[in-house]
Amino acid sequence: MHHLQRPEGRIAYDLYGAEHTGTTVICVPGMFDHRSSFRFVGAALAAAGHSVAVMDLRGHGDSDTAFDDHTDHAAATDAIALAEELGGGPTVMVGNSLGAGAVTIAAFERPDMVAGITLLAPFLRPPRSTRATRALQRVLLTRPWAPRALALFYGRLHAGRTPEGHREQLERIRRMLRPADRYRAVLATVNGPKRAVEWIEGSEHPNAEAVVVMGERDPDWKDPRAEARWAASVVGGRLVMVPDCGHYPQSQRPDVVVPVITELIERVNAGA
């Protein structure tokens, strides 16, 4: 584990293939997730010769809990800072859920650095919800039962194929949610504004090569394919739908995700 120093605290990240000279890849998970959800992707891309950094969000995993801003924009600034820390050259960024919003913002803000983006189950705009759904969410997010409820919800989002090591990953999530200060940071991330749509509305597509990957059984959306089509349209990217997969393609279907990212890297390097 490594740490990136930011003005308010440190961001934890794992580095796969640190000695490699291939493309730098930055991976950003979603809210109430741990960086280890990218364990298969990081290892496979490193085996292909790339240098892969997988970060935790602010207050998540092993990142510090001292931050005030927990938005997707804040995560974008951390991803950019991490890319600069690792050399600052043309970078491919991969984001899941809220992390997909973060790498989209990064592509808009730093077109000189972010050459390609892969959006996994992207959360680029809030899903529509009823008053009853919002009330239920408030109840579920109330301690002392909230850490267990969120861990159960995390498991439910894995509709379809169960990843190898899923039980250990669930325990990481439970452990992460137990301390009060860390849970406050996670709660701030869940309840905070999702700002990616601010960059998307009224803007041209980002310059970065883009691909959207969505699980066919993603429970976050009533119609995952329709949401994925919209996401692909606003970033000017192609769309890959993944069977037997919910909200976490990076861990549920790395056999699909790794080749998609590899092809994106090849397109980025061909256009450099």
Keywords:
272 residues, Rossmann fold
Low-confidence stretches: none
Q: What is the CATH topology assignment?
A: Rossmann fold
- Portion in strands: 15-25%
The biggest beta sheet is recorded as: 8 strands, mixed
Radius of gyration: 17 Å
Continuous helix count: 11
SSE topology string: EEEHEHEHEHHHHHEHEHH
Helix percentage range: 40-55%
Instruction: Decide which structural class fits the backbone.
Output: alpha/beta
What is the domain tally? 1
Q: List the strand order in the largest sheet.
A: 1-2-4-3-5-6-7-8
Distance between the termini: 31 Å
* Top-tier CATH class: Alpha Beta
CATH architecture: 3-Layer(aba) Sandwich
Mean pLDDT: 93
Structure, explained:
This protein has 272 residues and is an alpha/beta fold. It has one domain (2-271): Alpha/Beta hydrolase fold, catalytic domain (Rossmann fold, 3-Layer(aba) Sandwich). It has 11 helices and 8 strands. α1 (39-47) crosses α11, α2 (72-85) crosses α3 (98-109) and α5 (146-156) packs antiparallel against α6. It starts with a strand and ends with a helix. InterPro entries: AB_hydrolase_1, AB_hydrolase_fold, Carboxylesterase_BioH, Epox_hydrolase-like. This is Pimeloyl-ACP methyl ester carboxylesterase.
